[in-house]
Amino acid sequence: MSSENNVADRLLTDARKKTAKQESAGLGKIALIVGVIALLASPISIAGWVLGAAAIVLGAIAVRRPLAAKLAKIAIGLGVAAILVGVFFFTLNIAQM
Question: Which among 93, 89, 82 is positioned nearest to 33, based on CA atoms?
Protein backbone atom coordinates (compact mmCIF):
# COMPACT_ATOMS: atom_id res chain seq x y z
CA MET A 1 0.00 0.00 0.00
CA SER A 2 2.72 2.47 0.85
CA SER A 3 4.42 1.91 -2.50
CA GLU A 4 1.23 2.90 -4.31
CA ASN A 5 1.06 6.10 -2.30
CA ASN A 6 4.68 6.87 -3.11
CA VAL A 7 3.98 6.47 -6.83
CA ALA A 8 0.86 8.60 -6.59
CA ASP A 9 2.70 11.25 -4.58
CA ARG A 10 5.54 11.30 -7.10
CA LEU A 11 3.11 11.66 -10.02
CA LEU A 12 1.26 14.43 -8.22
CA THR A 13 4.51 16.24 -7.47
CA ASP A 14 5.61 15.94 -11.10
CA ALA A 15 2.26 17.29 -12.30
CA ARG A 16 2.50 20.24 -9.92
CA LYS A 17 6.03 21.05 -11.11
CA LYS A 18 4.91 20.92 -14.74
CA THR A 19 1.94 23.18 -14.04
CA ALA A 20 4.09 25.65 -12.10
CA LYS A 21 6.61 25.71 -14.93
CA GLN A 22 3.87 26.44 -17.48
CA GLU A 23 2.49 29.26 -15.33
CA SER A 24 5.86 30.95 -15.04
CA ALA A 25 6.49 34.21 -16.86
CA GLY A 26 10.26 33.67 -16.89
CA LEU A 27 10.57 32.79 -20.56
CA GLY A 28 8.56 35.87 -21.51
CA LYS A 29 10.92 38.05 -19.48
CA ILE A 30 13.95 36.48 -21.11
CA ALA A 31 12.44 37.01 -24.57
CA LEU A 32 11.73 40.64 -23.72
CA ILE A 33 15.30 41.20 -22.50
CA VAL A 34 16.72 39.63 -25.68
CA GLY A 35 14.37 41.81 -27.74
CA VAL A 36 15.56 45.00 -26.04
CA ILE A 37 19.21 44.01 -26.48
CA ALA A 38 18.49 43.17 -30.14
CA LEU A 39 16.98 46.59 -30.72
CA LEU A 40 19.96 48.30 -29.07
CA ALA A 41 22.42 46.22 -31.10
CA SER A 42 20.53 46.53 -34.39
CA PRO A 43 22.75 49.30 -35.85
CA ILE A 44 25.39 46.56 -36.01
CA SER A 45 23.34 44.77 -38.64
CA ILE A 46 24.39 41.15 -38.09
CA ALA A 47 23.93 41.44 -34.32
CA GLY A 48 20.47 42.91 -34.83
CA TRP A 49 19.51 40.09 -37.17
CA VAL A 50 20.74 37.29 -34.91
CA LEU A 51 19.39 38.73 -31.67
CA GLY A 52 16.16 39.77 -33.38
CA ALA A 53 15.63 36.24 -34.65
CA ALA A 54 16.37 34.89 -31.17
CA ALA A 55 13.81 37.27 -29.66
CA ILE A 56 11.20 36.16 -32.20
CA VAL A 57 11.83 32.47 -31.50
CA LEU A 58 11.80 32.90 -27.72
CA GLY A 59 8.69 35.04 -27.97
CA ALA A 60 6.93 32.45 -30.12
CA ILE A 61 7.70 29.76 -27.57
CA ALA A 62 6.64 31.95 -24.62
CA VAL A 63 3.38 33.10 -26.22
CA ARG A 64 1.87 29.69 -25.42
CA ARG A 65 2.12 30.40 -21.70
CA PRO A 66 -0.76 32.52 -20.39
CA LEU A 67 1.26 34.63 -17.95
CA ALA A 68 4.03 35.34 -20.44
CA ALA A 69 1.87 36.03 -23.52
CA LYS A 70 1.90 39.83 -23.28
CA LEU A 71 5.67 40.02 -22.74
CA ALA A 72 6.20 37.50 -25.54
CA LYS A 73 4.19 39.56 -28.02
CA ILE A 74 6.21 42.65 -27.13
CA ALA A 75 9.43 40.63 -27.57
CA ILE A 76 8.30 39.46 -31.01
CA GLY A 77 7.62 43.06 -32.00
CA LEU A 78 11.02 44.16 -30.73
CA GLY A 79 12.68 41.31 -32.63
CA VAL A 80 10.98 42.31 -35.87
CA ALA A 81 11.89 45.97 -35.29
CA ALA A 82 15.51 45.00 -34.62
CA ILE A 83 15.70 43.04 -37.85
CA LEU A 84 14.20 45.93 -39.82
CA VAL A 85 16.60 48.45 -38.28
CA GLY A 86 19.48 46.06 -38.98
CA VAL A 87 18.40 45.79 -42.63
CA PHE A 88 18.18 49.58 -42.85
CA PHE A 89 21.71 50.09 -41.53
CA PHE A 90 23.05 47.28 -43.73
CA THR A 91 21.49 48.92 -46.78
CA LEU A 92 22.83 52.30 -45.71
CA ASN A 93 26.36 50.88 -45.42
CA ILE A 94 26.12 49.25 -48.84
CA ALA A 95 24.85 52.50 -50.40
CA GLN A 96 27.75 54.49 -48.99
CA MET A 97 30.42 52.24 -50.52
Answer: 82
